[in-house]
Write a structure and sequence with these properties.
Elements lengths: L5 E5 L4 H12 L3 E6 L7 H11 L5 E5 L5 H11 L3 E4 L8 H4 L1 H20 L6 E7 L23 H20 L3 E6 L2 E2 L8 H10 L4 E4 L5 E2 L2 E2 H13 L7 E6 L5 E2 H12 L5 E4 L14 H7 L7 H16 L2
Helix pairs in contact: 1-2, 1-8, 3-5, 5-6, 7-9, 9-11
């Protein structure tokens, strides 16, 4: 077996972070998990995710905010990571309208903290970090390609994610730090985020409450199941360092789903009727997302396998089990 990697995972109590930590440990790697355990959503869900990881060999957890650059630098010095999987961020498009400084602290200062610690590290080989499909905004023609311009963000969240990409590009050029940015397209699945539409819709349907459907349902999303994401994520982490600079990849399902169909699939999985309250478009939202997967398919053989007709019932079953419904 190849020598285990030493991976720092930020945002380890988050949705993707939790799944990534489990997969890395299963693959035999050592993981130092970082998270500040904020209360953007139910803290119990985050602690339950960590509890599910348990205390296997090669695993450690430390509570820290990634914007605390001196602490982050000290952690890098002590742990000597070979890789960083940087998933921590203040998430949510709509939340950014009322809480802008939280996004600057977490997404800009936090990303810079990681980059600065990395440039002084003598052990680090590769940073893999989370970007977002939201960087494409509403002015990009679908399917969205990594070579498309992404300079018209419609939310502060999107702007911070694009800023992170530019910061990484500059650090890769200045200091030769190999970096890979991943533009995730609406990732969903068990242990997901309570602020995401699929969770809100599931809860409303099971509680016999109306669903808020924005832009009168005239929206499309490229949904990506968590297992498909983690599969390619581990491949990227484990690749041998070939001296690349800074790369960007879309990770999506490549099949935009109309919102009305998405609601139908959730309702069927819940075995209930969905009551919809149709509302105008929200500020900061985008009309459609659609990932061009040419680049990541060519370089990593990525091919999403899980359709929403399979993935959504899995989430609904997890939701029922978790809340004992």
């Amino acid at each position: 077996m190849p020598k285990p990697l030493r991976v720092i995972v930020t945002g380890a109590a988050g949705f993707i972070g939790h799944h990534a930590v489990k997969a890395l440990l299963k693959a035999g790697h050592e993981v130092l998990a970082l998270d500040n355990l904020n209360e953007y959503y139910d803290l119990k869900l985050k602690t339950d995710r960590l509890e599910q990881i348990g205390s296997p060999g090669g695993f450690a957890f430390e509570k820290v905010h990634i914007s605390e650059h001196e602490k982050i630098a000290s952690i890098f010095d002590k742990y000597a990571p070979t890789h960083v999987l940087h998933l921590a961020a203040q998430a949510g498009v709509r939340y950014s309208i009322d809480h802008p400084f939280s996004y600057i602290d977490s997404n800009i200062k936090g990303h810079l903290s990681i980059l600065e610690a990395a440039r002084h590290s003598r052990s680090l080989e590769h940073i893999i970090y989370a970007s977002s499909s939201s960087v494409y905004g509403n002015d990009t023609e679908p399917p969205f390609s990594e070579s498309d311009r992404a300079d018209t963000p419609v939310s502060l969240y999107a702007a911070t994610k694009r800023a992170d990409e530019l910061l990484s590009e500059s650090y890769a050029r200045l200091y030769g730090i190999p970096q890979t940015g991943l533009r995730f397209f609406t990732v969903y699945g068990p242990w997901g985020r309570p602020d995401m539409a699929y969770w809100l819709f599931t809860r409303a349907i099971l509680d016999a409450k109306p669903i808020k459907v924005f832009n009168n349902g005239e929206l499309e999303r490229d949904f990506t199941y968590i297992d498909d994401v983690i599969d390619v994520l581990i491949r990227i982490v484990e690749e041998k360092n070939t001296g690349f600079g800074h790369r960007l990849y879309n990770i999506g399902g490549a099949k935009p789903v109309p919102l009305k169909k998405f609601i139908e699939v959730i309702a069927k999985a819940c075995d209930r009727e969905a009551e919809c309250e149709y509302l105008p478009m929200q500020k900061g939202d985008v009309y459609r997302t659609h990932a061009d997967l040419t680049r990541i398919s060519r370089e990593y053989g990525y091919a999403p396998k899980t359709e929403i007709e399979t993935g959504i019932p899995r989430f609904v079953q997890w939701y029922r089990d978790y809340f004992r419904i």
